[in-house]
Amino acid sequence: MRALLSVSDKTGLVEFAKGLVERGFEIVSTGGTYKTLTDAGIEAIYIQDVTGFPEILDGRVKTLHPNIHGGILARRNEVHLGQLKNLGIVPIDLVAVNLYPFKATVEQKGVTLAEAIEKIDIGGPSMVRSAAKNHESVIIVVNPANYPAILEKLAAGEVDGDFRQKLAFEAFSHTAAYDAAISSYLGSLEKEAPEEFADDLIIAAEKVSELRYGENPHQHAAFYRSLRAPQGTIGAAKQLQGKELSFNNILDADAAFKIAMEFREFPACSIIKHNNPCGVALGETQEEAFSRALEADTISAFGGIIGFNQAVTKAAAQLIVKSFFEAVIAPEFEADALEVFTAKKNLRILETGYPLKREPFPYEIKKVGGGFLLQDSDCRSLTDEDLKLASGKEYDLETLSEMHFAWRIVKHIKSNAIVVTKDKQVLGVGAGQMNRVGSARIALTQAGEKAKGAVLASDAFFPFKDTVELAAEAGIKAIIQTGGSNNDEEVVQEARAKNIVMVLTGVRHFKH
User: Fold this and answer.
1) 509 an active-site residue?
2) What pTM was computed for the model?
């Protein structure tokens, strides 16, 4: 029996090779693997002694040869084995190959395109695919973790078909992930996102961790990170302290960070509960932003997740540890703040770095039965010129600024979404209701007396004037909404009658 060993990851290699030799295998090997084996005193045949051809092109070609692939791909039948015998090719019964470290290379800072290209393995995937195709006759192993099980089965006298099929599945998954990493890297070099959706969708990701459970305890779950996840995302975040993240922690931390990063000019804080903001505010300082965000809904904020848009300070940390929160996520943390957080050892601290200008995969994916929906991320920003005054007198700069604040938040709230804000502080949130007036009632009730002189934002148009009537009763001074309803004229007339400024954006922000 013959085994071909050619691995970049040499974990357990020597022990595996010794076990194969003890079970009657002769070893064929290449390059660094050959040296590792022979240095360990294991007899091996060098690859060019099998091919009869030297490595060429700086090692780019060494295993792409009929003496290798013929030995791997031959079925164990009379015709194929007869051809091998006539050509002097020895069958290969086991292939242990893992590939050039492409992903590790491109993750290094300052790596050049030329350096990345040289880590694209050609011969390795070819051998893996050949062996996996012929797995009924050839044992293919790409994961060193499988070495002990293979040796155990060989010692027992048989590697059964189910196990061979499992190894083949792992092999094709290995090469698919490898190609996806290359595709992801080259795609990330594009200056702009592609204008058209690809006919074949490649999602390149790696498992970060198994989670204790999913949204509910009876659901299994894991967290996968996009390959080349850029800084400034939950996928690239470093957990600096705290318990293991849960499925819901990750979802809510992502939402908290995205809302906070809507604002760059002042310290901003968002507090998320069940993937909706229960508090968002700006402040002159981080501690002020946090205090005002918490003030919006202290009951809902209990056990929530906090997001900041700047480095978290010691003063902000001292306020946070006075209450119970699940996690804090921010671009960075001052050393003094981290010291304060140690008082709450279970509190999860996530550091993301600051977002880059463009993600390599700037899309959102929604799973449906038997398929996926893919769309651009909702990154549409409003300018002053986008706003169309529909009712009321010309608004002042303060009201304009408040409407922009409310609009940036409402797009992150589950539809139907209503948010009430004043002085850059969320006062009330209505989320996920089946009708818009229901969301408005919730938001305005939560805002209470503070709604007087506040701004109300809606993620989509008002189908009827009832929401405007509620807003007027609560004392709302300005409404920002999309417009586009068949009843726009009636809605606008009601706003005029109630002396409410109403501006239309022409942009909708549904979030299902």
Assistant:
1) no
2) 0.83
